[in-house]
Amino acid sequence: MDIENDIHMTDERGRTNADDEDDEDNEEDEDLVEDDLTILTRAWINERGAPDILEYEGAAIENLMELVDFQMQRIPTQPALVANILKMDVDRVKYLVRSYLRTRLSKIEQHARHYTIDPVYRARMSQAELDYANGFVDLGDKHIQRSFLDQLPPHLRDVNDSGIKGLDMVTKPDLDAAVFCRVRSNVGEFQFEASEDPIVMKRNNLFITRYSIIRNLLEDGKVELI
Q1: Which of 91, 127, 171, 217 has the most CB atoms lying inside 10 A of its own CB?
Q2: Whole-number Å distance between alpha carbons of 187 and 196
Q3: Higher pLDDT pick, 141 / 217
Q4: What is the C-alpha separation between 204 and 185, in angstroms, rounded?
Q5: What does the DSSP 8-state code read for residue 20?
């Protein structure tokens, strides 16, 4: 019996793990070929560290859930030891998916109105998340409307008003929050602050900075949050 093939969920369907032994001094960055579990784990960590909602990793989740279903069908036919290891592996993936989705839902609840108004954030959410956000906003509007807005003059009932002394009633994520990040691929010279000299960002370098500064690098996959 080939136990290794039985218990490694992410290797069974021919996916290749990223090479963890890259030379730090190598100027030529190697292409990273990652399995779905690695992709979702990184997305989960990034999601927990970023102040705003990130791109939804729908393909990785779909592939992993298909693999979970496949392994669940195999568990009853395996010896006790292999079955227990498979179940642990399945539970680990389920926890990762649940935590990833709960993190995103928590962010949606904090700034639901902003995410449903901004087309960039609307495109980042899955259809289920977008429906949840719209429903969350509708329920909130109905609640405050019945609670006190109906008692106010008509010109004070707009919950989206942003013209009162520059105050915006729609809460937004703090894009200037401090984050820790690790460089995944050589970036070269990068300007962190306009008043500072450029800094060379090399693979595996660690930085603490404002999220808004490295936001584009995160979206391009050149850095990851930690």
Answers
A1: 217
A2: 17
A3: 217
A4: 8
A5: S
Give how far the C-alpha of residue 125 lies from the chain's centroid of Cα atoms, to the nearest Å.
10
**φ and ψ at 56, to 5 degrees?**
-75, 125
The conformation of residue 179, written as its DSSP 8-state character, comes to E
Burial 213-226 (b: 16+ CB within 10 A, else e): bbbebbeeebbbbe
Q: Please give the Cα distance from 210 to 64 (Å, whole number).
A: 33
CA dist list (Å): 137 to 27, 77, 78, 110: 49, 47, 48, 11
Asked if 154 and 133 touch (Cβ cutoff 8 Å), the reply is no
pTM: 0.78
Give which of 95, 105, 96 is closest to 53, Cα–Cα: 105
User: Which DSSP string corresponds to 156-200?
Assistant: G--TT---BTTB-SS----TT-EEEEEESS--EEE-SSTTS--EE
| Each residue's pLDDT tens digit, 69-83 | 999 999 999 899 999
Q: Are 119 and 143 spatial neighbours (Cβ–Cβ below 8 Å)?
A: no
Task: Answer yes or no: are the C-beta atoms of 217 and 177 closer than 8 Å.
Answer: no
Both tokens of 117, joined, read: 């108004």
